Amino acid sequence: MNIVLLGSPASGKGTQADLLCKKFNLYHLSTGEVARKLAEKDQRIKEIIDSGKLIPAEEMTMHVINFLSNEKPDLKNILFEGFPRFISQFEALSNFLITKGDNLDLVISLDVSQEEAIKRISSRRVCEACGENFNLITKPSKFPGKCDKCGSNLIQRKDDNEDSVKVRFEYYENNTKELIDYVEKMGKLTKVNGERPIDEIQKDLVEIVERVKNEQNNN
Ligand code: AMP
């Protein structure tokens, strides 16, 4: 089963994706993580990410398709987080999966208002070593300033500053919303209210995935 999780910056995509992947044994493909890895060796990409801009759509598509074709050719059951963000990326991914005899089974959009997302961003922290996400209010670490997983320091993401956040929302409004409308018109979108506690949202998501799995088993 392949799932796409769409949502604005700080909609909780990463947290929910982690939980869903553990529950259903899915491979978590976060293109934010892919991009941050690329940025370690590529100053141009680092500047794009830090400023809140997106990597050009086709370039990011190429990284994803190359990764799936070359590094994980036998991979099945993927949860895509942060990709696609453009209609062109959605089409490219759908076509790629079809050539592998596979499919996109479920597209979920996690909805939060911009006001709520901005509030979350100011309290978001990330582990500088392993990348695990925390939130001072909704998902605090056990020891302040330290990662639960590896004990390293928690920092703010470079692109979580006011200017970059503004740019990231512009991209969301101008591109990803267009994609969400597009998928909705195809009748393929499931919307979930993301302005609730983490476990409540997860419960809904698990039910949605289980429903689709049962439908597939009955066909
Ligand atoms: P995220 O962690 O999903 O907020 O992604 C961090 C950054 O990675 C973005 O601001 C972009 O610069 C880059 N990125 C991630 N996914 C994509 C994508 N689908 N298309 C273009 N750039 C992306």
From TrEMBL:
GO terms for biological process: AMP salvage. AMP binds at T31, R36, K53, L54, I55, G82, F83, P84, R85, Q89, R157, R168. Signal peptide: none annotated. The keyword Metal-binding applies. It catalyses: AMP + ATP = 2 ADP. Its EC number is 2.7.4.3. Residues 124-159 form the Adenylate kinase active site lid domain. The keyword Ribonucleoprotein does not apply. It is found in: Cytoplasm. GO terms for molecular function: AMP kinase activity; ATP binding; zinc ion binding. Keywords: ATP-binding, Cytoplasm, Kinase, Metal-binding, Nucleotide biosynthesis, Nucleotide-binding, Transferase, Zinc. ATP binds at A10, S11, G12, K13, G14, T15, R124, R196. One of its GO terms (cellular component) is cytoplasm. Zn(2+) binds at C127, C130, C147, C150. Residues 123-160 are annotated as: LID. Pathway: Purine metabolism; AMP biosynthesis via salvage pathway; AMP from ADP: step 1/1. InterPro entries: Adenyl_kin_sub, Adenylat/UMP-CMP_kin, Adenylate_kinase_lid-dom, ADK_active_lid_dom_sf, P-loop_NTPase. Belongs to the adenylate kinase family. Monomer. Consists of three domains, a large central CORE domain and two small peripheral domains, NMPbind and LID, which undergo movements during catalysis. The LID domain closes over the site of phosphoryl transfer upon ATP binding. Assembling and dissambling the active center during each catalytic cycle provides an effective means to prevent ATP hydrolysis. Some bacteria have evolved a zinc-coordinating structure that stabilizes the LID domain. PANTHER family: NUCLEOTIDE KINASE. Catalyzes the reversible transfer of the terminal phosphate group between ATP and AMP. Plays an important role in cellular energy homeostasis and in adenine nucleotide metabolism. This is Adenylate kinase. It comes from Candidatus Woesebacteria bacterium GW2011_GWC2_31_9.
